[in-house]
Specification:
- The chain has 296 residues and is an alpha/beta fold.
- The chain has ten helices and ten strands.
- Helices cover 41% and strands 26% of the residues.
- Strands 4-3-5-10-6-9-7-8 form an eight-stranded mixed sheet, with helices on both faces. The protein has a two-stranded antiparallel ribbon with strand order 1-2.
- The protein is globular and about 65 Å long.
Length: 296
């Protein structure tokens, strides 16, 4: 068994297609298939359900895939650690972030990218629970999530403030006279909302429910991009965070604050305290802390 076989397995999981996985790994499809069969022979397990095309992973394959992700994360961490010992800042910084908050990650991504051109970023949109789980399993380096369930005994935390909500709309389709909107006014317009189960959506639902309001939900999606597309098309408005920069995406987009529209749990940048965590994660956490202090 070698690290490339694990990379091939994960590429197949990402693409769900033998040819695309091979292209992603810069090898031929027969080579990919042969190396995966070699891995199956070594483990004495069938990992991939095969027909004329990829049909998924077997139960054993799913379990091995989980270990493969953990081993590759450790491998990437080792490479970053070695680079740090050489005085280099290189590697892949894996960041999990809740989909909507009043914090724009570009505030630290751009300065880090300018300072360390060999540093790459992998951003994942996840729930707070998924982020803490990813940090605990060493599948993420840093997280940006709600802090209400974060145990400070296990995580270093930089508080980033409270998320405030506003109504995002396209001025070609909607107009509002008041500079600040009430929840009653917001409930009377067609809305695009983040899918249920996410912390931000729960805060939105609570704000309506506590006032006895039933909003006009026209569209629900776990894709922020889909919601913005619907807003630009005039299908609906969307409850979005303030200070996120969404109104800068188009000259026609505007966001109006909602009175009393706050997510009560603060947002924060999170780093796992317990080993192992990479020198890259520690360095970037310290750099981001310094950048945020300079802007405060």
């Amino acid at each position: 068994m070698d690290i490339k076989q694990l990379k091939f397995l994960i590429a197949l999981d990402q693409t769900r297609h033998f040819g695309q996985a091979a292209a992603l790994c810069h090898i031929t499809q027969p080579t990919l298939s042969m190396r995966l069969r070699n891995l199956e022979d070594e483990l004495d397990l069938v990992l991939v359900a095969r027909g004329k095309r990829f049909e998924g992973f077997t139960e054993a394959g799913e379990r091995v895939l989980s270990w493969a992700r953990t081993l590759l994360a450790a491998y990437d961490g080792l490479q970053a650690e070695a680079a740090s010992c050489r005085g280099q800042t290189v590697g892949n910084l894996r960041v999990g972030m809740v989909p909507l908050s009043s914090f724009n990650p570009v505030l630290f991504l751009k300065p880090l990218a300018q300072r360390y051109p060999e540093l790459h970023f992998q951003m994942s949109s996840l729930s707070s629970e998924q982020i803490t789980d990813g940090l605990s399993r060493n599948q993420l380096d840093l997280g940006i999530c709600y802090l209400d369930q974060i145990n400070p005994n296990y995580f270093e935390v930089i508080a980033l403030g409270i998320t405030s909500m506003g109504l995002l709309y396209d001025t070609r389709h909607f107009q509002f006279q008041s500079p600040e909107l009430s929840w009653e006014a917001v409930s009377n317009v067609p809305l695009g909302l983040l899918s249920q189960g996410m912390h931000y959506r729960q805060a939105v639902d609570l704000s309506f429910r506590s006032r006895g309001l039933n909003p006009q939900s026209m569209l629900e999606s776990d894709s922020t991009y889909m919601l913005i597309q619907a807003v630009c098309a005039g299908m609906c408005c969307a409850i979005m965070p303030l200070q996120y920069g969404m109104e800068d995406l188009s000259e026609h987009l505007c966001i109006s604050p909602i009175s009393g529209g706050n997510v009560h749990a603060p947002i924060g940048l999170v780093l796992r305290k317990t080993e192992p965590h990479s020198a890259l994660a520690e360095q970037c956490f310290a750099e981001i802390k310094a950048l945020l202090s300079a802007h405060s």
